[in-house]
Amino acid sequence: MTEMSPVVGSLLRIHKIITRALNVSIQNCDEYLAKRGVPAEEAGGFLMYVATLKWVVHSHHLTEDELAFPYFRGKLEAPYDRLREDHRAVARLLVTLEECLPRMSSGGLGKLREVLGELDKLWVPHIKIEEEHVTAEKLNRVADAQEQSRLIRQFEEHGRKNSGPGPLALPFFFYNLEGADREAFLMPFPWLVKKVLVPHVWRAQWKPMRPFLLV
User: Fold this and answer.
1) Out of 9-13, 15-19, 102-106, 210-214, which region has the weakest mean confidence (pLDDT)?
2) Is residue 21 part of a domain?
3) Does some domain include residue 146?
4) 129-171 residue pLDDT tens
5) How many domains, the chain?
6) Nearest to 13 by CA among 199, 212, 179, 164
7) What is the CATH number of the domain that holds 51?
8) For residues 171-183, b (16+ Cβ closer than 10 Å) or e, as one string?
9) How confident is the model at residue 1 (pLDDT cuts 50, 70, 90)?
């Protein structure tokens, strides 16, 4: 059995976070459209959730474009030009998504659902390509544990700068995972962040998103 690569494990968890958040956003859009509107008590939280999803997708792709792909290129065979073109297409959708959010309560819900659907159509085959080419077996051959730990630190630092406000992004990351995936994701975070700041100090800020999270 191939030993898991820290870098690949991190990649898979980020993909799971975004995939779940996309599915939750689409499912709730469908429910709201069927009800002909977003319930007032959920509107702010749903807006926050989708806005945070936008930041997280943007951050993930920026880290791949600026750090991961340049490192992998020449070490791992993959269709990098295709992946970069996918990123550009996703970036255009994220701009449209951001434009939809302020109009969500005034008839813009259908457009938001359309954009989320287009994003999902790009996202699913895109991550399939990445996960088929960036595997633990392949990466472990070209980067030892120490090197992968260094990469993880670089990727995490880069991601934190681009994922939007920490009091929203961190609970979004934490609570779109469950079980062993959540435990593995939480492991490198300081005790103060995962036991005090996120669940208690920052709770009032992210609480509107709670109905959409695995809390």
Assistant:
1) 102-106
2) yes
3) yes
4) 999 999 999 999 999 999 999 999 999 999 989 999 999 999 9
5) 1
6) 179
7) 1.20.120.520
8) bbbbbbbeeeebe
9) very low
Helices 179-186 and 166-174, packing angle to 10 deg: 140
Three-state secondary structure along the chain?
A: CCCCCHHHHHHHHHHHHHHHHHHHHHHHHHHHHHHCCCCHHHHHHHHHHHHHHHHHHHHHHHHHHHHHHHHHCCCCCCCHHHHHHHHHHHHHHHHHHHHHHHHHHHCCHHHHHHHHHHHHHHHHHHHHHHHHHCCHHHHHHHCCHHHHHHHHHHHHHHHHHHCCCHHHHHHHHHCCCCHHHHHHHHCCCCHHHHHHHHHHHCHHHHHHHHHHCCC
Give the model confidence (pLDDT) of 56-68 as tens digits. Answer: 999 999 999 999 9
The domain of 129 spans 6-164
- Residue 131, domain member (yes or no): yes
What is the chain's alpha carbon radius of gyration, rounded to the nearest angstrom?
18
* Nearest-angstrom CA–CA distance, 65 and 168: 24
Nearest CA to 10 among 166, 188, 214? 188
Contact indicator for 45, 211 with CB cutoff of 8 Å: yes
How confident is the model at residue 2, as a pLDDT?
Answer: 52
